[in-house]
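User: C-alpha cells for this one?
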Amino acid sequence: MTTPDDQVFAATASIRRYLQERPDAADTASGIAQWWIHHPVTLECVEAALHRLMDCGEVESVKLGRQTIWRVIR
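Assistant:
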C-alpha cells in the first residue's frame, strides 16, 4: 500500500522527468495532473510535489491572470 508521501514522491519524479524531456513546458497544477503524470494522482498530491520542486529550486510559479502556471526556473 502506498502512503501519501510515496504518492508525492512519485508525482515529483514524474514532473521532474517530464520537464527534463520538455524544458519549455508550463502548465497549471490541474493541467500537470492531467497531462504530465501518467498515473492517477490527486490535485493535492501534484501541488505538494510542485512545492517540493520549488523548494529545491527546480520550478517556479508565475501568476497569469487568475491562474498559477508552473515551469522550470529560467
